[in-house]
Amino acid sequence: MDFKLIRRVHKIGQWLAITPSNYDKKHVSKIQKSYNLLIFTILTFGLIKIIFYTRRTINTVNLILYYFIEMSLYLLNINSIIVTIFWKNNQWCQLYKNLKRINSTEDNTRQFFFANFIYLMAEIITSASLYEKYHQINIFRRYQLLAQMYYTFLIYVTVRMFLVRYQKLGELLTRQLDLPPQETLPVVRKVAKLVSFLRKSSEIFNDLFDLSLSCIIIFTILNMIFNIFWLVSDGGSTVLDDILVILVFKQTPTLVWTLIVILMCDSVTNEVKKIHFTCYQLYFNGTRGQKTELHQLTKEINQNLPKFTAIGFGVVNKTTIISMVATIINFIIFAMQLTQQN
């Protein structure tokens, strides 16, 4: 059951101060609130330290990019550590309570351990390789990067739960194509009701995660721009080993997980479109007396397509990736021209 994985994610997430300790409880304990405030205070001082330190070590364009990267991480942490836990815990509980109504036997525990293992290995290799040449290991930034990766994985797992449930409804409808028309109508009614219910649950998801998802996408874009611009603008002084470390171990995990989340959001919408198409097939196979209600139910399903959103990006789908690539290319061209003029 996929809730075994969610429980594990929450157990670790509470120590990172980015999730409630238990998604079944609507009230957050005073201990956890105090712990979250402590982490938030430490991160705030860490951000101030980073700003004053990097001001003396990075050129102007890279400095601006670096500040925006740090602010995107900081905003993500404010939203996850403070806003979501203190003011949106009820929505958090309601979301997973709703998803429990449609059971799933999928178990992604291996993905959980694999994702964490890959990230930790990438962090160790990156820190060990670049420690002496480029920066000290900043514990505040390491925490923020870990929290960002973990929160991205949490969003992935949650969107995956939506996808699995829609797939289950789609399979249920597909089986009706081989059955007599008189047996299909009750099933279509049930599916239409659950599709509407899941769409309302996706609105709760957007309320919880749209700002966080936006911060993750912005961080990924800025991080790509920063690393590429740094490698291009350093006059060839960066050795090949360092380039490989930066691109493969530092950038790839962030980029891959962000793309996976975006594609997962797109897959959910496509899955509901398949359900809608199957309903049309059942409509044409139905009897004359059934067609009026089947048409209405088909229309209802089409009106309840889920849309996962990110602030500033609108609906998250494949076109979001195109927007990311265009932004990266345009900014690097602009930054290179600005550097040449100076």
UniProtKB/TrEMBL annotation:
Belongs to the insect chemoreceptor superfamily. Gustatory receptor (GR) family. PANTHER family: GUSTATORY RECEPTOR 8A-RELATED, INVERTEBRATE GUSTATORY RECEPTOR. The keyword Transmembrane applies. It is found in: Cell membrane. It is a multi-pass membrane protein. The keyword Transmembrane applies. The chain crosses the membrane at residues 35-52, 64-87, 112-131, 143-163, 208-231, 243-265, 321-339. One of its GO terms (cellular component) is axon. It comes from the Eukaryota. GO terms for biological process: chemosensory behavior; male courtship behavior; sensory perception of taste; signal transduction. It holds the Pfam family 7tm_7. Keywords: Cell membrane, Membrane, Receptor, Transducer, Transmembrane, Transmembrane helix. This is Gustatory receptor. Gustatory receptor which mediates acceptance or avoidance behavior, depending on its substrates.
